Amino acid sequence: MEVSRIRVLRGPNLWSRHTAIEAIVHCAAAEQGLNAQHPTEQQLRRIFPEVGPFGGHRPGEQVAMAHALEKVTLDLQTQAGCPVSFSRTTPTQEPGVFQVVVQYTEEAVGRLALELAEKLCHAAIAGVGFDLEAAIAQLHELDEDVRLGPSTGAIVDAAVARGVPIRRLTDGSLVQFGWGAKQRRIQAAEIDSSSAIAESIAQDKDLTKSLLHAAGVPVPMGRPASSLDEAWAIAQEIGLPVVV
Fold first, then answer.
1. Which residues lie closer than 8 Å to 200 by C-beta, 6 or more apart?
2. How many angstroms separate the CA atoms of 149 and 158, rounded?
3. Is the pLDDT of residue 19 over 70?
4. Where are the alpha helices (DSSP H) in the chain?
5. Does residue 120 belong to any structural domain of this protein?
6. Model confidence over 95-120: pLDDT tens digits?
7. Rounded Cα gap, residues 120 and 79, in angstroms
8. Do residues 188 and 151 touch, judged by C-beta distance below 8 A?
9. Does 74 share its domain with 107?
10. In the chain, which end has fewer C-beta atoms inside a 10 angstrom radius, N or C?
11. Are 116 and 210 found together in one domain?
């Protein structure tokens, strides 16, 4: 089995609305016709018992190692805690050549999952072992490092649920929603129309509260304290109980 080309599909594409990794996979004749009795499939399932069933998406389609690569790539991400569900393997007009597409949520994680899946499949073909726990731990650690923070992630999840295309522009929290003239961008929980003055005000909780109170918005009473004695004096002035 040889992977000759890898493309990253960062938006809606021919296959789905999901971001995905697309690979061209060449399989030799001996790497086709997988079934439960095939020694390569048996070895692969000994290495990775949790992997899902291999199968074509057309009636009577022959199952090849490309299908195994697809499922292993998807299920490695699933085992690492990534919310992915879409994958597809399609034969091309050239015999033994397949297009493999697997969803990812973080590009770096998707690329690593495909790389590890290829190594796992080659180990199964060679009839040798593979450290599955280390591979899943590596994927999980990378996902923890690169995934969006909770506030940005919640906004992105809401966009995805509504069918809004998203694209992460940096390793940080700069995210683009939509395309062309309709696109908007956020940085963490800020939007592209947030002014610098508004951001500065929002970072000063006491000032924010004063301005809201002046505008007639109900806010809790209180003020900053620089010492324990001052805090206790303010608490008695407001009336217990208080929140610090």
1. none
2. 14
3. yes
4. 39-47, 65-79, 107-126, 132-146, 150-161, 196-202, 205-214, 228-238
5. yes
6. 999 999 999 988 999 999 999 999 99
7. 15
8. yes
9. yes
10. C
11. no
